[in-house]
Amino acid sequence: MKELHEKVLKEINSGDAEVLSPQKFAEKTKQLHDLSLITDKYSEVESVIRDLYTLQQMLDDPSTAQDKDLLEMTQQEIKSTTENIIEMEKQLLFSMLPTDSADEANAILEIRAGTGGNEAGLFAADILRMYERFAERQRWKWEEISKTYDGIGAVKDAAIGITGSNVFGQLKYESGVHRVQRVPATETQGRIHTSTVTVAIMPQPTEVQVQIQDSDVRVDVFRASGSGGQKVNTTDSAIRLTHIPTGIVIAIQDERSNQKNRAKAFTILRAKLYEREREKLALERRDSRRKQVGAGTRSEKIRTYNFPQNRVTDHRINKTLHELEGVLNGEALSEFIQALKIEEQTDMLMAMNDA
């Protein structure tokens, strides 16, 4: 990688770079940046190893043995430097792992109430607020694309566009079934009910990354339904897209403008097609030894929120936090995300070792 870094640097700095197309030059610059993240760490490790070699020479010097304080200081320095090298080498290994190009992308968050009736819808609203608060802490932009709810505040389904830095890279581990165990407000006997909510996180591709042929999509325009009063749409502004090759159907009726609903529907369709292709490639590449943490199939129960015990447990990594409120307000959610990221990196290192 160090040799490749030097080669790419020469290509960029040479006169030949002037004949490169803007796209090719951008690719070379990005490649140089990514390689620098690794080679810089490698140079740091080399430097500290040289320091360790110097310290070892000091320790072997007979004059050092005669000075008790110097001997003790040198031994301590060797110990701390060795520990530092081990940690730096670990970070170097992690930096060499293949990266997911979609990690830096914006994301589409989809939430659907599962089993549990109204209680599932109320929990879906709680989960939606959890991600909104987490997004606020990350200073991400939150845009509601569509949401279906009833009068008691229960959310049936919702689609949210989240824009910011490394959105998909952080949220991708959240896909799957989230389970809640609590006593509903309407429960008179104090019995604990179990409900579920399905979460899907999809990277948001650009129009260049996913091009949709007009002939592949059937567009139906219809009158939006509502709960009465001002919410009833009196124009045919609702949009339903049917992607003929895959059978994916997207219906949006939140906006009064036909064009706005159409744009939102195509945004979701593009994300679904992109994620479908990503899942197909991941399935082809996935090591049969172990399913990758964070693959996030929607049927997989990934986390339980137990209100009576003030407990949240992620079943993929057997991690439990006894701070339910901290997770639901988005503050402690990052602890699960970071642990899942480390688990994924460890799996990838083990796969590299097996190879």
TrEMBL record:
Pfam families: PCRF, RF-1
SMART domains found in the cross-reference section: PCRF
Entry superkingdom: Eukaryota
Keyword Lyase: no
One BP term from GO: mitochondrial translational termination
Gene Ontology CC annotations of this record: cytosol; mitochondrial inner membrane
Localization, UniProt: Cytoplasm
SUPFAM superfamilies: Release factor
Family: Belongs to the prokaryotic/mitochondrial release factor family.
PANTHER family in the cross-refs: LD18447P (PTHR43804)
Protein name: Protein release factor class I
Source organism of the structure: Lobosporangium transversale
